[in-house]
Design brief:
two-stranded antiparallel ribbon, Rossmann fold, alpha/beta, about 120 residues, single chain
Length: about 120
């Protein structure tokens, strides 16, 4: 499972990479803290999972999601935020983004969610 991280905090990206490295068969295929760079990289790499912060220095993480998702490409998206407001939850719901986690209280849920995704993946024959 290829994962792309969009967060403007280098410290948080490093922390996420350590967390994800403990999940078998998961790989960080890219990371960035800038919207424009994220859009280009995601379009080229087509990761299975996006982990996106909402508030970035150059806009909202939803801008990344809205620009890369298409009829033929809709990666599983995990929104990770310090601002778990009802408004942002609604923006996730409007986009059918299932995973909305608070950085402070839900950080460990990312690994749990990724493990569940691996368990539910169709077996390759």
């Amino acid at each position: 499972m290829n994962i792309f991280i969009v967060d403007d905090s280098e410290i948080l990206r490093q922390r996420l990479k350590r967390l994800i490295s403990a999940v078998p068969d998961t790989y960080i295929c890219g990371e960035t803290g800038q919207i424009s760079e994220a859009i280009e990289l995601i379009k080229n790499l087509t990761p299975d999972v996006l982990i996106v912060d909402i508030q970035l220095l150059d806009g909202l993480g939803f801008d990344v999601y809205d620009r890369v998702v298409s009829e033929n490409y809709k990666p599983v998206t995990i929104v990770l935020t310090n601002y778990p407001t009802r408004q942002y939850q609604q923006m996730c719901d409007d986009r059918q983004i299932k995973y909305f986690f608070d950085k402070t209280t839900d950080f460990e849920k990312i690994a749990i969610t990724l493990k569940e995704m691996k368990l539910n993946e169709p077996k390759k024959t």
